[in-house]
Amino acid sequence: MNPSAKRITIGRKPGNTIVLNTHDVSGTHASLTLVTPVTNTWEIQDLGSANGTFVDGMRVYRKEITPANQIKLGQTLLSWELILDPRPLPPVVPVMQTAKVPEPEEPSAEQEEIREIAWNLKKVSDDFREKRNRIAEIQAQESINSRIQGLGFPMGAVIGSLAQALPPDYKIFGYAGGVISLGFAVSALISSKKLSKEKKKYTGLDDWYKINYVCPHCHTFIQQPFELLEKTKNCRACKKPLIP
After folding, report:
1. Which residue range forms the structural domain that includes residue 172?
2. Maximum distance among all Cα pairs of the chain, rounded to whole angstroms
3. Based on the domain organization, do 140 and 200 belong to the same domain?
4. DSSP symbols for 44-56
5. What is the pTM of this model?
6. Is residue 89 situated within a structural domain?
7. Residue ranges of the FHA domain (predicted)?
């Protein structure tokens, strides 16, 4: 008997003194404590196992035993040779390995060319969309300005005429109302002229788009929006890649 083994544990887990790798033995199944070395008397204690601890066929939770007794953990017979000379498994020391991170591959000349094509097409698409949105904003503002002018000029004239019929002390308010109405109309007129001048910059936008949003291989106009082109990736006409 190993004199240093005052208490041993038995179970399926590697940390136990005696490891029994069977399905009916719990992770930490039972413990054995040396009570009297002279008579080789031990105390066995069940540690909450699932399948029980048995001495001479009787299930026990704590009992003194000697080598004359038969011990079973679940259905597994425990040899007294293991108890008297326990040999714990050596601890497993994990070996730390540094994973080698693969270096990124340099893109080929063909891949670089496709990336540049995609970047140019996206820029043309974004510019075209931004300008179309600006044209829509200008048209909406022009419509508002037209309504203001249509109401402001006549209302200013009417209010000015009515102001002449007011008592002298109130004429100033009538004239002020007419001036305000005319002011809104004049402001809308000036705004419309500026917007009209800005809108001229976008004349021929559709033609510009059809000239620049083309496949650089076959020079065919790409009818797909860029968002859809990102999914199809290839030119419909020549089938060459446009998106990486």
Report:
1. 109-232
2. 134
3. yes
4. EEE-S-SS-EEET
5. 0.47
6. no
7. 8-60
